[in-house]
């Protein structure tokens, strides 16, 4: 026993070292970003990228941007405050760049330099419509006005490349399509945005909380130093602010609950044994499960998602049950080997049931479910081995039966043992439970809307809406996806989409639409522009314009290079990444009031379709829920086969009916009190299944070894520890966490009571089942 325990201890040290090295070296990054949770499915690399992956990439780009809107009733004061705040934010670690669209002219100059060599291939929608209708006179007159405008920025170089001043009109229209980005005056107030680009590793490596804290300090300082008469207000939006607010709320709840649960479990073990040794044994068992789980996941996967860790660590709570079943065995002078032998069969069957159940998740296409499965299976096996090899090496400590918890248990036990149902009634009841659970799962209302997953922050939501209404920025990034084998095909489709959207933009159904084809026209469109410019402008109006210019007008070169959406363009304008994703181009929409009207407008364009990220992510979680539900059904089937093979058909059904009944009551009870049934509540049912199955299996196996009293007491202690560890989550302010806690708080006591009803412990009942 000592040799096996020593070998296992060495293996645990190796696994711990490996896990620590993987995480600290960055080989396996722990990621808490919800964006890392979606779109990580096992798909064919040659297949078209799924919508969820495109959404994930788009939101990942958006996650690296934040918007702050500064408002004041005096424009000069607004500029002073905006520049000062922008300077403070620039100096915060994690800020990549800061731009002030209302005051910085650098972006316009950059655009002008980029487009000028191609000016005679570019036309605004307005100028193209005029030339197509044969109304070149209006374009010519606009060129004359631009030439003599007091604030004209024309130069010899610009006139040589663009004598009819077509580019300024193109750039002005491009700016309008981008949305309001300068200074907006509304209700006697002036508003201007600060656009912040974040370092790509800010959220991945975890300093986002510190960055948000310093930004909040900078905003508070700006507001405190301003004169109240200036009416200075500052609003902010961006995924980083919402993520930090959500994480802060969740962290506060989890820390409070963890402290209470930990102290409660420590107090429970100490009050039962009056010795720290059983507590040490419990910690060793749980720790071995955590170590093995993390080591296994980091060995197989490139990264670990925090949700997988939470569910995995929660399931490792079963390891407390394993430890308690050994620790409560009476100190009757038996050898450690003999003591282990009395519980081995029950632990083994309980482990096998849980492992088979969670192995189902490993074959799902969702990486998240696979991570949970690997973590849980490895952790449970490690905890099981620790109970068999290491706990027997600790000195035995007897239960103090006169203490409060054993006395309370005795009263509950005496009451519940009176639940002596006939064998046939129990069998019929088990079948009814299984049927009821199947009906409940199939017909109970579900809602996977991602808005129900978080705590929410009313202040941030209000500020985001204000920025969207005032500046046309932020908000829900609805977009149109355009697929095509080559860039020119996609650009032409993008132009067709813009034509279809134009009536909707005109009537206000869509605030604006902006895609890659707006910045870089297709070669077909550039050819059309060149023809219109040559035929409708140069041939007729060049002789009239020539005397007004200080340069000689040159006829457009038909062999001039085209503007391409190539690596050079993307290098000069990194923001184009938000409009392009592999073989997909994106038209981003703003202020959409009727998504159905948009879908109808582009229905005839085969390669384009409307994508709502929130709906897409919601569908993804529904996909996860369906897989988890199917996995739960298969786990029940496997558990039923194992139980009937071990105990016979009727008693096997009774064993299976216990966790099924607990899940039925938990699911129905949660729905009755308004808990949203989604992926996370189904995953909580997995925990109820695994722990509830252990309860009834331990009850059944203990009758074969004469350890009924010790086993029932161990299950009672396990119930207390599980309620402390999981049930307290029901008090969380985060809906997802609260839902998990509620499911556990309802399901586990139900499983405990059903274990008495479905597996009677009287001698008479035992004989009737023999």
TrEMBL record:
Signal peptide boundaries: none
Keyword field contains Nucleus: no
Organism (species): Thalassospira lohafexi
Keyword set, alphabetical order: Cell membrane, Membrane, Transmembrane, Transmembrane helix
Protein name in the entry: Membrane transport protein MMPL domain-containing protein
Domain Membrane transport protein MMPL positions: 159-324
Pfam families, per database record: MMPL
UniProt keyword Transmembrane present: yes
Cellular component, GO, one term: plasma membrane
Domain of life: Bacteria
Gene3D superfamilies: Multidrug efflux transporter AcrB transmembrane domain (1.20.1640.10)
Membrane topology (UniProt): Multi-pass membrane protein
Transmembrane segment boundaries: 257-274, 281-301, 307-328, 349-368, 374-394, 424-444, 627-645, 652-673, 679-698, 710-730, 736-757
Subcellular compartments: Cell membrane
